[in-house]
Specification:
Elements (H helix, E strand, L loop, with lengths): L6 H9 L11 E5 L2 E4 L4 E4 L2 H4 L8 H11 L12 H12 L5 E5 L2 H19 L5 E5 L8 H6 L3 H4 L9 E4 L4 H7 L4 E6 L2 E2 L5 E2 L4 H12 L2 E5 L23 E4 L10 E5 L19 H16 L2 H22 L3 E7 L2 E6 L4 H10 L2 E2 L1 E4 L2 E4 L7 H23 L1
Parallel strand pairs: 3-15, 5-6, 5-7, 7-10, 10-11
Antiparallel strand pairs: 1-2, 2-3, 4-12, 8-9, 11-12, 13-14, 14-17, 16-17
The protein binds pyridoxal-5'-phosphate.
Length: 403
């Protein structure tokens, strides 16, 4: 096959279903927070596979764990016990308020499983209640049921009719949750910070109020920590910063630093699955679990969450400085290393491509908003480099705009 620069992109465009607007970059290698294209051009990666490469690209701990595991045992069915699966479950339980774990392969699958678990709970404890309250601007995945859970028209409209059993209400509005609750409600499912919806922060006291409401109604609280979990916001789990404990947590993305995995964590009370109720062929695969175990072990043993707070705050203040310099920046927000910068016009794609030309990968989360979700191991040097590129790109845009 002809590997000349650009050839891969042309082939891909003819081969794949047209589900995403790709960025014209073929990544062939990654190390830490850097990736390289087929011509050897280097880029600073502040996308990290959509908040997945938590320890950066090819982190030695993860790479070693995966190599050892593929040389030992790649796969077996979940009717047998495997050691990496137990090790990952144990480290997750030890470092959270949860008691039990189910492994799957993605965030959508983890959320589907969490919804099934909540419905099972509803059948057993809430007279058959099955409905889940979720929020507008949320994102819970791409399966049909998770589109119904995801409160975004653009994801729902092309696929109507959707599975029933979900009510989408305003985020940060406890009264909306209260009004939507009925005797058919079995759970509320929320992101502690809405990632794909535009990096929307939960307002002070909101999650506490939701927890209190769920307790008063005897319904479950599911936190979708697919994006916020595993250190991204500066604690291993985002709920730790909210002063509440959920009944169920879903994880995926950063859990295995790039190897596909998902997980449902639940309290003993909510762990109501019985044999045969749920399952997955690949879920809990030993290679994925070895990568997950090395990732969580490294993060907890090396205070990577502490680094996220330090580096994230430093990055946030740099972005605020840019906001003070350029009036077309309307907002800067986020927590830890999940940050966003919003503009007064739909320029995110344009600025993203300018950043790309200057060696920085960023993500367009909305037409007027750029999101940053670099590996959790970055330091001030990488942040300074990214801020330098952003400043250059923004200053060129500003001068072009004011001409
Ligand atoms: C909060 C949240 N939940 C679920 C998902 C879906 O995860 P996956 O793409 O692994 O199915 C995402 C993906 O962006 C997400 O951000």
């Amino acid at each position: 096959m002809n590997t000349k620069a650009g050839r891969w992109q042309e082939l891909a465009d003819n081969l794949f279903m047209n589900t995403t607007t790709r960025i014209p970059l073929t990544i062939v290698k990654g190390r830490g927070a850097r990736v390289w294209d087929e011509k050897g051009q280097e880029y600073l990666d502040f996308v990290a596979g959509w908040a997945v490469d938590s320890l950066g690209h090819c982190h030695p701990a993860v790479t070693r764990g995966v190599i050892e595991q593929v040389q030992t045992l790649i796969h077996t069915s979940n009717q047998f016990y495997t050691i990496p699966q137990v090790q990952l479950a144990a480290i997750l339980v030890k470092n959270s308020c949860m008691d039990r774990v189910f492994f799957c392969n993605s965030g959508a699958e983890a959320n589907e499983g969490a919804v099934k678990l909540a419905r099972r709970y509803g059948k057993q404890h809430l007279k058959g209640a099955y409905e889940i309250i979720t929020t507008l601007s949320s994102f819970h995945g791409r399966t049909l049921a998770m589109i119904a859970a995801t409160g975004q028209d653009k994801h729902q409209q092309p696929y109507l009719p959707l599975p029933t059993g979900f009510i989408n209400v305003n985020y940060n509005d406890i009264e909306a949750i209260k009004s939507a609750t009925s005797k058919t409600t079995c759970a509320v499912m929320l992101e502690p910070l809405q990632g794909e919806g535009g990096v929307n922060i939960a307002s002070e006291g909101y999650l506490q109020a939701v927890r209190d409401w769920c307790d008063s109604q005897g319904i479950l609280l599911i936190l979708d920590e697919v994006q916020t979990g595993i250190g991204r916001l500066g604690t291993l789990f985002a709920y730790e910063q909210l002063g509440i404990e959920p009944d169920i947590i879903t994880l995926a993305k950063g859990l295995a630093s790039g190897i596909p995995i998902g997980a449902i964590l639940a309290s003993e009370k909510a762990s109501v699955f019985a044999p045969g109720d749920h399952g997955s062929t690949f879920g809990g695969n030993p290679v994925a679990c070895a990568a997950g175990y090395e990732t969580v072990k490294f993060i907890t043993e090396n205070d990577i969450a502490g680094n996220v707070i330090k580096t994230g705050n430093y990055f946030l203040s740099g972005l605020q400085r840019l906001k003070n310099m350029y009036p077309f920046i309307t907002d800067v927000r986020g927590r830890g290393l999940l940050l966003a910068i919003e503009f007064d016009a739909d320029v995110a794609q344009l600025l993203l491509l300018e950043c790309l030309k200057n060696g920085l990968l960023v993500n367009k989360v909305k037409s007027n908003t750029i999101r940053f979700m670099p590996p959790l191991i970055i330091g001030k040097e990488e942040v300074d480099e990214a801020l330098g590129i952003l400043e250059k790109v923004l200053s060129v845009y500003y001068h072009d705009k004011s001409r």
